[in-house]
Amino acid sequence: MAADVAAAPPALCVLLPERRRFAGQPVSRETGGFLARADRLADGEGGERTQLLRHFDLLPRGWPMAAITRQRDAGDAVLHQWLRADPCHVRPDMNGARVLAIGELGLGHDEAQALLAPLRPLFGDVGFQLSAPVPSRWYVALPIGSKLPLFSPPEQVLGDDLFEHLPDGPEGRRWRALLNEAQMILHNHPVNELRAKAGLPVVNSLCFWGAGQLPDHVRSVFTAVASQEPELLSLAQLAGLRGTDDGPQLLDLRQVRDWSAVEQRLLPGLREMGRDELQLDFADGARFSLRAGQRWRFWRRPLARLA
């Protein structure tokens, strides 16, 4: 799936999480009225990847997020093929190892580099380079053209059993063995001992994901993006989007879980809509198009709930 870069973009497109994230939260009568009168666009496919692919076109096709974020983090992504190996915290249980956190563990630069030090020879022995230009984002550099198994994205791994998401087959077994050795190294690492004593989550595993090479081309119908999310900002940088602009914009509210906070951001724009279009794009695929002329659909009853 790729962005429809030929279509006329809305003046503002708001990226939102799945509607179930707002389950049980009321929709104000004013916002419910706007939504009831809106045009319901054809549902897109659900998921973070497909949501972003509705607004960005990558050539060649694929989703090599490790290379995309590496370019923003270090500027050297063109030199290698990349795989994210983000630090994560897992909790052993009766059925395996439950993944409780990936990437954002509050690591400092010195902590990350100390954790990486004994892991680098492990990866180096199989011809890979391990680095962390940002404490929350760790990278494996591989020769261009390397064959890799399919790894699950973090949104599928988080909260689940880690071992259910490790690849099978000959290549998969190689990465399973590498992960097992990395976990043993991390288990008794001094940094983790200090973090455990301080009540902080320890780094006791890695999450492999996002494999691939830097795309030749990334484009979007939008000209600006407002976000704090590294993956979206990395895509925006490759597509030449800026932080502010008079043209069509993407507003990222995917991390918001309070619907009233979403309404606070949306209502001023909805009240002042001129001829421009405002779109809401939910991560479950639901999409709404709102325009000023829809106010004449006064017979439609306001929505009280999102789903």
Give structural attributes.
single chain, 307 residues, six-stranded mixed sheet, 2 domains, five-stranded antiparallel sheet, elongated, 30% helix, 13 strands
Task: Tell me what the structure shows.
The protein has 307 residues and is an alpha+beta fold. It folds into two domains: 12-60 and 218-296; 65-212, no CATH class. Helices cover 30% and strands 22% of the residues. The protein contains ten helices and 13 strands. The protein has helices spanning 29-37, 48-53, 65-74, 109-116, 119-124, 154-157, 169-187, 190-197, 230-239, 259-271; strands at 12-16, 39-40, 57-59, 81-93, 96-102, 129-134, 137-142, 205-212, 217-219, 224-226, 249-252, 278-282, 287-290. Strands 2-13-12-1-11-10 form a six-stranded mixed β-sheet, with helices on one face. Strands 4, 5, 6, 7 and 8 form a five-stranded antiparallel β-sheet that branches. Strands 3-9 form a two-stranded antiparallel sheet. Strand 4 and strand 5 form a beta hairpin. It is elongated. The two termini are 25 Å apart. The mean pLDDT is 92.
